[in-house]
Specification:
There is one protein chain. The protein has a single domain, classed as 3-Layer(aba) Sandwich (Rossmann fold). It contains seven helices and seven strands; from the N terminus they run E-H-E-H-E-H-E-H-E-H-E-H-H-E. It has a seven-stranded parallel β-sheet with strand order 3-2-1-4-5-6-7, with helices on both faces. Helix 5 links the parallel strand 5 and strand 6. The protein is globular, with a radius of gyration of 17 Å. The structure holds NADPH dihydro-nicotinamide-adenine-dinucleotide phosphate. The site of NADPH dihydro-nicotinamide-adenine-dinucleotide phosphate (NDP) has 30 residues, from helix 1.
């Protein structure tokens, strides 16, 4: 039996891409899921699919950039399932643009969703994990959290921040038996490019992203990190398409 069986897992950004694939993978291994994102129709459809396949999932419409909504998400998971074993802070946006274009609103939304969303997710689950002296926080960074590309200054800034925050959390919470994992995907075939507003840049990036692999590859990596024995922490993983150079 997988050690994922019966674990209560919250997944943010579960309405598409990596989050959705992760939900399906973990549900198939017996996890009890709480799915979060803003698009209710997608969450509802995913919940139904998981339930039809014999899995367990609830959902709660949540904007990760709201501290209050993230606290309510954790409260909901505790009310429905009595504990939170794993938090997957996956929600993110990537409206790439060069700095000189001054797309201030897009900078704000990347900082609010990609950095503050992760912090609020940690804040919401940490008290109950510390109390139980058990838990696992998985934060989705990116290859752009290791390397900076043209037009990725702000996005990379947010993803470098996710890695720094997760490493800090690891050091602080190791003695409380709380595991942390940074997942850094390379190019994955999802809807992420939709948030790029510069149409010329978007079509260039769509072209180079044709090498993207299925989000299920990341879902399997998340499952691998969770299913290790509790004294083993997979702290960081980079998962790229084999043919991706950078
Ligand atoms: P998608 O666009 O398919 O998924 C993004 C998810 O984030 C959606 O479910 C979206 O749901 C959710 N989301 C966005 N903003 C918010 C918000 N304010 N509150 C709650 N949920 C939100 O892209 P991916 O699956 O690719 O992205 C998942 C993560 O993977 C991101 O953090 C991304 O940066 C990272 N990543 C992706 C790579 C790729 O090549 N695809 C590479 C490296 C990292 P909704 O709109 O319904 O709220």
């Amino acid at each position: 039996m997988s050690t994922i069986q019966g674990k209560v897992v919250i997944i943010t950004g579960a309405s598409s891409g990596i989050g959705e694939a992760t939900a399906k993978e973990l549900a198939s291994k017996g996890a009890k899921l709480v799915l979060a994102a803003r698009r209710e129709d997608r969450l509802q459809k995913l919940q139904e699919e998981i339930q039809q396949n014999g899995g367990q999932a609830f959902y709660k419409v949540t904007d990760v950039s709201s501290h209050e909504q993230m606290e309510k998400l954790a409260d909901y998971a505790l009310k429905e399932f009595g504990k939170i074993d794993v938090m997957v802070n996956n929600a993110g946006v990537m409206p790439l643009s060069p700095v000189h274009q001054k797309k201030i609103n897009e900078w704000d939304s990347m900082i609010d969703i990609n950095i503050k969303g992760v912090l609020y997710g940690i804040a919401a689950v940490l008290p109950s994990m510390r109390e139980r002296k058990e838990g696992h926080i998985i934060n989705v960074s990116s290859i752009a959290g290791h390397l900076v590309f043209p037009a990725s200054a702000v996005y990379s800034g947010t993803k470098f921040a996710v890695r720094a925050i997760t490493e800090g959390l690891r050091i602080e919470e190791a003695s409380n038996n709380i595991r942390t994992t940074i997942i850094s995907p390379g190019t994955i075939a999802t809807e992420l490019l939709e948030s790029i507003s510069d149409l010329e840049l978007k079509s260039e990036i769509i072209e180079v992203s044709k090498i993207g692999i299925e989000p299920a590859s990341i879902a399997r990596s998340v499952a691998f990190a969770i299913e290790q024995p509790s004294d083993v922490a997979i702290n960081e993983m980079i998962i790229r398409p084999t043919i991706q150079e950078l």
